Amino acid sequence: MNTFFIEFRDPLFSIIIFFALIFVVTFFSYWWGRYKRKEDYRHLDTFLKQFRSLPSQQELKGLITKGELPEKSWLLLAHAYSKNGDYEKSIEIYNEMLKVGDKTNSKETMFLLGRTYFKAGFLERAKNIFLEILKNNPRTPQALTYLLLVYEYMKDYKSALEVLDSLDELKKDILSDSAYLKSLAIISDVNTTVRYKANELLEIYKHSYQLTYLVYDYLFRVNPKLAWENFNSANAHLISDVLWRLKKEDLDLDIIRQNGYLSELYTARGDVDFAVKSSIFEFDVLINLKKECCATLSFEYICNSCKQVYPFAFNRCSSCHSINTQEIELILSKNYHRDFSEENNSFQ
Ligand SMILES: [Zn+2]
């Protein structure tokens, strides 16, 4: 029986103790390493979570009231939110700043709040903010400009034109805006005939020689004959998409034959045979392909002022609010309409 027990002074006993100690130390060091790693992950997760979730309205209120951050930091934060499309948070910050912030910059903060309301589409609130600014500071062109835009978006052209008078008094250039707003007012008037509207638009155009796209897009839609009679073919490139989509029966072949751009455009479309080549790449490709290939033109619209690209035509750039800055870009594309027609014919 005694053979199973090891004596206290036996060297074997020391060796067992030694290995047992090594095992205990290794086990604890492994366990401690795992625990620390887990803690590190958890800490990092908690830290990153702060940036994923936005502070609540109550938290924001507390932070702004405490005044731990300078006003400029809050303005930068609100601007960043607005730029990323989170208008709600941006509006909350501006509103809290106006309640508790330094009153010396309240006009500027109100302007930023009004602008954010406008971008977010809260036109009525934006209008009230700009009117409030102008009540105390009537000679604020920035607020007047945004108030004009608000009225325009609300289709209240009469009020927008009144704002324009105030901008005129401040010696601002209002020629384009005036022609544009008057044209919009004429087109949207439900009490006048199409013929009257067309003539009024032409009158405005003859005075300003601006808004070619707005005027001729309308005229070619409602009265192509009148449009051709008053159209300066040198401006054809400004409305190339309108001309491209014009019905075949509305074409004036005499005018088209006399102008190089129009001849190339309608030869490329396959209506006439007035041109054999074109200096414009897209027209040249389509003229050479004739009707054999299922290619056509599509259009992109670029603002000359801010370089914003739109898939649709515009008269006032919604990004920089400039008028008459649209440039039409021609794009060769597949003619899905032709494919569709051919598919339909194949079933007959
Ligand atoms: Zn622009």
Write the layout of secondary structure elements.
Blueprint: H1 11-52, H2 57-66, H3 71-83, H4 87-100, H5 106-120, H6 123-136, H7 141-153, H8 157-169, H9 175-188, H10 194-208, H11 212-222, H12 224-229, H13 240-244, H14 253-258, H15 260-269, H16 281-289, E1 295-303, E2 309-310, E3 326-334, H17 336-346
Antiparallel strand pairs: 1-2, 1-3
Helix pairs in contact: 2-4, 3-4, 4-5, 5-6, 5-7, 6-7, 7-8, 8-9, 9-10, 10-11, 15-16
Overview of this protein structure:
The chain has 348 residues and is mostly helical. Among the domains are: 59-156, Tetratricopeptide repeat domain (Serine Threonine Protein Phosphatase 5, Tetratricopeptide repeat, Alpha Horseshoe), CATH 1.25.40.10; 294-348, no CATH class. It contains 17 helices and 3 strands. It has helices at residues 11-52, 57-66, 71-83, 87-100, 106-120, 123-136, 141-153, 157-169, 175-188, 194-208, 212-222, 224-229, 240-244, 253-258, 260-269, 281-289, 336-346; strands spanning 295-303, 309-310, 326-334. The longest helix is centred in the first third of the chain and has 42 residues, at 11-52. The radius of gyration is 35 Å and the shape is flat. The termini are far apart. The mean pLDDT is 87. The structure holds zinc ion. The site of zinc ion (ZN) has 9 residues, from loops.
